[in-house]
Amino acid sequence: MKHFRFLVIVFLIGFTIFFNIERLDFAEQNTIDIDSMVYVLGFVAGVSILAIPQLGKIRLSVLIVGWAVGYILAKLTSFSFFGGRPLLSGVHTYLSITELSLLLISVWLAYKLAQSIIDFEDAVQNVTFADTNRHVRQLAEASEEIQTEMFRSRHNHHPLSIIVVEPEPGSIRSSLNRLVKEAQQNMINHYITNNLAMILSRQLRRSDLVLTHRERSRVVLVCPDTNKTDSSVLVDYINDVVAKQLGLSITCGSASFPQEALTFEELVRQAELRIEQSTSKAATQTEPGTIEVAQQSSTA
């Protein structure tokens, strides 16, 4: 947020100078005479980059080259058809360099601010779980799919495993203001959990249900045709993927149908119990200040 505020301030200062540089009188007369066309280009560039999200996502070099070419074409058109100043001729050469520099600096400032706005919007979207990825559902909204998978496993005598994944508090703990610590910590937990769900939805099978449990800041995986042995291998894979892509330590607990429980709720309770056992064991074995990945696969 501080970086975003800083960019807004720099953007305002930059554009204030750009549109008022001719007011900076040296001696008794202006030594800088900016073509009115440059102000129009600068305004259009700034507004378009901020208003059109797609422009903030392309490479900065492409925008720089594009607006530089636009400036040159505008100067040549103005000179050829409207009797404007030449692009390169005596003192006009220095004015053209100044105009182009100011225009491109304005493009750069607008691009950096647009990038920051995009990052902020993405963060807010992740925190509020506004993503509509159909492969990631909230736990409270997926009861029908859960019951369907449970019925199919019972009817066909197929195994099914539940894996509960949650970030370790020590790996995401940060120094927060005391008055807003709880609210900020909840936002951080939701943000991390949503990113975790997004990564798992891309790495797991399409038949696996990825469910976000917002109240507990957890991800619950429903894995059809996955027995106890397979779930243990899957837990190792999940730990490896999350560590590589998020740099985050997680705790996993799993339980399998029908050996350990016959209902979804009981399977979740068994998986949560293994998380608690893993956390307690890690707390007694890990020295203070050390973060350790705690894993617990299902056991008979």
List the helices and strands and how they pair.
Elements lengths: L1 H19 L15 H16 L8 H23 L8 H37 L8 E3 L4 H14 L3 E8 L1 H4 L8 H23 L5 E5 L4 E7 L3 H19 L3 E8 L6 H22 L8 E3 L4
Parallel strand pairs: 1-3, 5-6
Antiparallel strand pairs: 2-4, 2-5, 3-4
Helix pairs in contact: 1-4, 2-3, 2-4, 3-4, 4-7, 7-8
The end-to-end distance, rounded to whole angstroms, is 49 Å
Tell me what the CATH architecture of the largest domain is. Answer: 2-Layer Sandwich
CATH topology call of the largest domain: Alpha-Beta Plaits
**What class, by secondary structure content?**
alpha/beta
Residue windows where pLDDT falls under 50 for at least 5 positions: 174-180, 286-300
Give the tally of β-strands. 6
Secondary-structure element sequence? Answer: HHHHEHEHHEEHEHE
Can you tell me about this structure?
- With 300 residues, the protein is an alpha/beta fold.
- It folds into two domains: 2-127, no CATH class; 136-296, Reverse transcriptase/Diguanylate cyclase domain (Alpha-Beta Plaits), CATH 3.30.70.
- The chain is 59% helix and 11% strand.
- It contains nine helices and six strands; from the N terminus they run ααααβαβααββαβαβ.
- It has a six-stranded mixed sheet, sandwiched between helices.
- α9 (264-285) links the parallel β5 and β6.
- The model is unreliable at 174-180 and 286-300 (pLDDT under 50).
